[in-house]
Amino acid sequence: MTTNTPTETAKDAVKNAAGLPSSVTTADIGKPDNRLSIEKSDPGRRGIAFKNLLSAKQSGGSASGGKATDEVPAGFARKTAPKLPELSELDVVRHYTRLSKMAFSVDANFYPLGSCTMKYNPRINEEAAALEGFSGLHPLAHDKSSQGTLEMLYDLEKRLCALCGMAAFTLQPAAGAHSEFTGLLIAKAYFEKLGDSARTEIICPDSAHGTNPATAAMLGFTPVNIKSGPDGRVDPADLKVHLSDKTAVLMLTIPNTLGIFESRIEEIADMAHKAGALVYMDGANFNALIGLVKPGDLGVDIMHINTHKTFSTPHGGGGPGAGGIGVKNRLEEFLPVPRVLKSGGAYTTDYNHPHSIGKVKAFFGNVGVLTRAYAYLLMHSKKELAGIAENAILNANYMKSRLQAVYPAHSKEYCMHECVLTPPDELTAKGLKTLDVAKRLLDYGFHAPTIYFPLIVHEAIMIEPTETESKETMDSFVETMLAIKNEGASTPQLLKDAPHTMPVKRLDEVQAARQPNLRW
Amino acid sequence: MFIPTTQKDQEEMLKTIGASSIKELLKQVPAKYLYPAFDLPETSLDEQQTARHMKNLAAANTPALSFLGAGAYERYIPAAVKALISRGEYLTAYTPYQAEASQGILQTIYEYQSSVCALYAMDCANASMYDGASAFGEAVRAAVRVTGKKKVLCQETLNPQYLKTLKTYFANSKDYQFVTIPQKDGLMDTDKLSAMLDSDTACVAFQTPNFFGLMEDAHKISQTAHAAGALVVAAADPASLGLFSPPGEYGADFAVGEGQALGLPLSYGGPYLGIFACKKEYVRQMPGRIAGMTKDKDGKRGFVLTLQAREQHIRRDKAASNICSNEALCALSATIYLALLGPEGLKELGLANAGAAAFAARKLASVKGAALKFKGSFFNEFVLNVSCDAARLREKVLAKERIDIGLPLKDLYPALGPGALLVCATETKTEEDILRLEKALRENI
Amino acid sequence: MPKQEEVKYTKTHEWIFVQGQEATVGLSDHAQHEMGDIVFVELPKPAQAVEKEKPCAVVESVKSAFDIYAPVSGQISALNEEAAKEPALINQSPMDKAWLFKITLSNPDQVKDLMDWNAYQDFVKQATH
What we know:
The structure holds 3 protein chains of 3 kinds. Chain A has 2 domains: 126-378, Type I PLP-dependent aspartate aminotransferase-like (Major domain) (Aspartate Aminotransferase, domain 2), CATH 3.40.640.10; 383-511, Aspartate Aminotransferase, domain 1 (Alpha-Beta Complex). Chain A contains 16 helices and 12 strands. In chain A, strand 8 and strand 9 (346-350) form a beta hairpin. By secondary structure, chain A is α/β, with parallel strands linked by helices. By secondary structure, chain B is α/β, with parallel strands linked by helices. Chain C has one domain (4-108): CATH 2.40.50.100. Helices cover 22% and strands 34% of the residues of chain C. Chain C has 4 helices and 9 strands. In chain C, the strands form 2 sheets. Chain C has a 6-stranded antiparallel beta sheet. In chain C, strands 4-6-7 form a 3-stranded antiparallel beta sheet. The model of chain C has no long low-confidence stretch (mean pLDDT 92). Classes of the chains: A alpha/beta, B alpha/beta, C alpha+beta. Chains A and B meet through helix 2, helix 3, helix 4, helix 5 and helix 6 of A and helix 1, helix 2, helix 3, helix 4 and helix 5 of B.
């Protein structure tokens, strides 16, 4: 038998009086407002109106040819109005301002998310992309009306070619995974043109991002996994076993997801090339190489960049990013269309590439994002670009060296731009996991590092500080990590129950997956 | 500027590391690869110079009074949308991997999914795809996966950009068959559709309004496809859905759309927003991120990323899609845009578009040498047939009047002849704008 | 349904209980325990032909997905829709209510290669050390 406590009854009364929908539980009442926009809706409210209403009737006369009427024909009209909120502009502004305060961000928090390169996003980038001349330009505008954007794209491609040691670049892909997709399609087209239809395998190390095998499979290739050696690098002996005349592409992340450079890359790339395969570099970790190393020199045939990692464009809560694929000479003819050409000081878009793979999205690419990346590049000389990688590497090694006495590092070597640690025995002995450390970090105002990735490291904690963080911030993070270890050793429950200071406690992900509630 | 580390910091940090120099930290990189020659500028611009340079480039784009549509539409973007999405908390967050520290982002994704479901009258939606074309490609992939069949029927009047993207989404592979359903008077010939459907057909994939701006008889197409056992993948312009039947009302299995229409700038083609929705039986066929509502351990409402075991970071090569980054901030724009409009505003937006286009069509068709090409109903764009070469007319009017009269269709649809021109008028076009276009055509045809 | 001792086990943690020409297959108690809360099951298709040691179903927890491999070759003869509807059953009753599917054996000899309860116990012990 259950009876409501007096407080619960009172809450029910409040709920009924407020006419709240049944999805609002009594536990929500009396706490800070966590209603959905639709639950704030009040029929009759409006946030914006459109008063410029023309009509066919106003035009007078009749059309030659077909009919021109703004009346929706019978059978075509919407039957039921969509269930969207009815709110005033202030309601909307207040709702989304409040929600924004319940989110960690680079602007407000240290965000050492490994493999994600959460560096500072300069504000000038935003101002540049918002310029009406850029943001108002229609993608099918005449080339003569688009000279500014085309010049920017042309120069951006040229600079990326120089940075990466590639012959040509396309900026059409919208993100990293979308770039991988584009890159492997190019490889596919290349082998098809050679008449080599037997190359159906893509080799990826077990430390690879999930997108690598997923992309290979999406394009009908068979992903082949190779095991990382004890130092986290590709083991040439194991690679040899898997390379064959079926291998289309060897996909490598350089440095890899352990933050380690493939020191034997020359030998590895050579082996792949001798087997007739192409070498693809996942550029997710290019922040470690920018201005220091040209991937083209390493024997890489195809590579991608992520502007939202290396080139300071914001992550926007999950996107939009922008990608790009650089290729060596012999692959240029397969790039998506349109290409941007320059002749006699004028820029044009060119669709005439019979061997092109086609299009991976409509129009050009995420040009609004690329505009930000271009502004960032303008602000960096050759030497300053190298400074990005140098400082990213310095910071990662600094954090690693300060933390590894307590949080054992996966690798004893110096790392590149990120390092992978594991939880100390003092914590695991108490039944504490990486997840508990991550959740406790939130209480201190730090976003957690990437956790449980790469998959090959048990309980991985992957830290990437980026070059834009100060020693002071990193020291504070390090001291917090050390304090958390002490907390966990003495009061494990404190970590198991963390976070304590966020708008919600740990969430029931099992219920979320078993009984999905995905919409109002 | 962006790197806070001073010389002194650097020395202290190296000392802590126990390294003599940054160079020493790089010893795992073979020396021959380090610091090569780069063909890049020796100098950089400061912020002010960068601002000026970017302004100059933006000014080199010479804006015209534009009547271009064809998949990207000039829209009025409410000031509140721009202000809210500029907040650093939204702009500089990442995918909400730590749910407790990202409740705001997760709730906006939940609200986005809900708004899309409401707008499209579908059961569920994901957190976004790259754009309408890639969402279309993924939806057709899902239909092929569900049915295990390899034949896809596409309308002839599908946006050519979508068709190209669709083919790459099937790896340009010859294992799949893409068959074109011919058009008649600008609309899908549903008699031919009936005849073409067979037991090998995975789905009928179409858009409405179609590339010519005409409203397809979606109910009839959907019924015909379902009667033959095929699935229906429909791409619908979200701005049209305040007036016209949403995909859920005609039983579409998968519904997609180009969300740029919902408060996003044109920006020469991106970032846009791929809307992806489906019936609930296909929820696990959705690619990409999905947010769900749940409770925390105190029973309080909260949000998480859910159904993650479908995705690439867990399933790897067995994932339905490789998508990782999506267009979250664009989805937020759309969510805020729809919250500002509400159901009434959405209808008004539809009327403003349909009204402007109908007004323009009447005006332009009254010009000597110009006539409407098709008889069907349209939303905010239509094909005008001019008695001269439309591409040349466009160049001429652009140069003389700074008006972009629309997209000539000769290259994309040679059968329409040299005079076919796709003209679009959204809510941004005033009576005066349209009269300027009319005058320009009158004087230049 | 059978006791743990009456069934055979695979190295991929399926159990199989053979009665005549038909075998019932499920996920071992050890495996469900390792996976944690199971949130989703994707069963084979009705009458699907399955091949020994080839994946034919999937179980998911919140952050992982596990393939279920057919312990023997044959054809699917029954599916446990209850388990698909309520995946929590696999955690609660992996050997009984939450059997996953039944196979009509095409090669009954294949059962001989599988581990008995003791061998599986040893296998699990070894794998976790």
